[in-house]
């Protein structure tokens, strides 16, 4: 048998054994120990340029295989004290060791695939935003940001069920500052209105800008947000 590859193509003696078993089209549950030992020793013999560190573990496995082969040839079934120095004392020991290594190799391959997938994503390290926190900010004495977000989510759900969002493309973009002034003008006229009534145009950019404008006005304490009872209407009025 000719070997055209180097020992470094394998991750260890068990990796080499699995390769030889597959190349010989053997069943891992019915290994011909005599044949596989000969192939293994031939391979080691063709790899004379190995360093001592690399060769040592392969030579240990060679000793294990020779020991196992001798036990099978002698039909030796009972273990003796000298067998304590060897891991492979039966065909079952060899088979179990190869099956265990094969499972580890398959799991390692799966982990490598997951690692390659994960490398395509970049995660931002959490930032400390405490320096930007205003401890004195209070949106309202009656309701908090949670209730406002819940009302906004319910509003979007109702609009999605009633009709699709208008996807007409417009060149002009509405800023938070401009929308804030518009809301101020509305409140100057009507004094008090329902939170959801501010979303008179159902485009995604308009809805987002309106919601951000309300948040900014509440943060700046320019408006009051009130709710008579849980899940009730949220009303907005000028301070």
Features:
single chain, 239 residues, mainly alpha, Arc Repressor Mutant, subunit A, 2 domains, 3 strands, 5% strand
Strand order of the largest sheet: 1-3-2
What is the average per-residue confidence, as pLDDT, rounded to a whole number?
A: 76
Straight-line distance between termini: 92 Å
Using only CA atoms, what is the Rg? 37 Å
Estimated structural class: mainly alpha
Brief overview:
By secondary structure, the chain is mainly alpha-helical. The protein has helices at 13-23, 33-45, 52-73, 91-118, 145-162, 176-190, 204-219, and strands spanning 192-194, 223-227, 234-238.
Describe what this molecule looks like in 3D.
- The chain has a three-stranded antiparallel β-sheet.
- The N and C termini lie far apart (92 Å).
- It is mostly helical.
- The chain folds into two domains: 7-118, no CATH class; 136-238, Structural maintenance of chromosome 1. Chain E (Arc Repressor Mutant, subunit A), CATH 1.10.10.
- The protein has seven helices and three strands, in the order H-H-H-H-H-H-E-H-E-E.
- Helix 2 runs antiparallel to helix 3 (52-73).
Write the layout of secondary structure elements.
Layout: H1 13-23, H2 33-45, H3 52-73, H4 91-118, H5 145-162, H6 176-190, E1 192-194, H7 204-219, E2 223-227, E3 234-238
Antiparallel strand pairs: 1-3, 2-3
Helix pairs in contact: 1-4, 2-3, 6-7
